[in-house]
Amino acid sequence: MSDNNSDAVRELRRALYEQQRTIFILRSQVIDQRAVVLQNLTRIESIEGYMTNNRGERFRPRFSPIAGVELGQLGRRLEMRERRRQNQADGTGNNAAGSSAIGRNEREDGPSSDSAPGTSGNLPPTPLSSRTTATSVQQNDTLGDGQGTSQNGDAAENGPGPSGILEAHMNRARVRMVRDEMVHRALQQQIEHQHQYLLQQQQREQAARQQHIREQLDEADQLHEQILEAENDENQDPAEQQQQQQRQIMQQQLYERNVRLQLREGRRFSSGAASSLVVPPAQLYWERECLICTELPANFYNRGCGHVCLCSACAVNCVLHKIATCILCRAPVNGTYAFVR
Question: Taxonomically, which superkingdom (predicted)?
């Protein structure tokens, strides 16, 4: 008997230790997850602050891999578009510079009979004039002046003025500001989505872990109670255990005896064979329900006072517990209770 109890206690202790270890691991995971979430939120706040402080300037924050790829593709598309426009402007400027240089040489030299082929009238423009003309055409294309090739030739001779250079820089600054604004909006939307996703994920994981921890704690409490009961059984003296078993047997026998007595008294009271048990209704004070249980109808009365105030089950209990007074008026019971049909 004691060996079985010792084995049971050891098994319960081992199970309790495993439950406590699982609870400790879950709590550590919850703490680690909270730390990761706090790090992500701190990183998001630092990026938001960096963006707010550098909104008007050109900045390069660190993006996630997906956002970095998308923003890189957007930047490459903008750069390729700007290069195509610049190449088109360079090609138009070179053509315009060549035609204007040829026309100018013909006007300066004039048609002469002694000019041979390969003279200065048929030579290509110098690199300096073509480069200057390309710059002028690019500025005209950027500003949207709509001037012709003759004006480009004049600009090639005179060179770009300070106002043209300033306006070109202003246009580049506007393009840069628009591009930075687009990047800022895309980054802000991504940060908001990531922030909401992290919060929702943290709430779901925290709720699931808390529920699991509560279940583990309940199981641990049950195991602890079982261990305490097993230890109490193990620490009891064999003589005390034997006495406790005897008391349980005696209580069971007493309960069975009371049940048999109740059945016998009920059959005797409900038989109605003896005419002496019946009293005329005029001499009785009849209650509708039993005064003790207030559930069953009253059909037993006291011979001394004639109060019908007990049901069959309560009358049997009064006989078994030797109650010698009436429940209603406290009058002494004359003999036993009688049944009324």
Answer: Eukaryota
Q: Let me know how long the chain is.
A: 341
- pLDDT, tens digit, 9 for 90 and up, residues 245-276: 888 888 777 767 766 665 565 555 555 444 44
What are the residues facing 325 on neighbouring strands?
Answer: 332
Question: DSSP alpha helices (H): ranges in 144-161?
Answer: 149-158
Q: Which of 35-44, 62-71, 145-154, 288-297 has the highest mean pLDDT?
A: 288-297
- The encoded tokens of residue 59 equal 């900045």
Q: Which domain holds residue 258?
A: 253-339
On whether residue 126 sits in a domain, the answer given is yes
Are residues 194 and 65 part of one domain? yes
Through-space distance between the first and last CA atoms of the chain, rounded to whole angstroms: 56
DSSP-assigned letters across all residues of 283-339: G-EE-SB-TTTSSSBP-EEETTT-EEEE-HHHHHHHHHTT--B-TTT-PBP-SSEEE
Residue 240, domain member (yes or no): no
CATH code of the domain covering residue 289: 3.30.40.10
Burial letters 256-283, b for 16+ CB under 10 A, else e: eeeeeebeebeeebeeeeeeebeeeeee
Q: How far apart are CA 101 and CA 293, in angstroms?
A: 126
Residues 196 and 228 in one domain: yes
pLDDT at 242: 79
Looking at the domain assignment, is residue 241 inside a domain? Answer: no
Q: 286 to each of 252, 281, 292, 312, how far by Cα in Å?
A: 37, 8, 14, 15
User: What pTM does this model have?
Assistant: 0.26
CA angle 174/177/178 to nearest 5° reads 85
The burial class, CB within 10 Å (0-12 / 13-18 / 19+), for 134 is buried
Residue type, 59: F
Question: How are beta strands 307-310 and 285-286 bridged, if at all?
Answer: parallel
Q: 243 in a domain, yes or no?
A: no
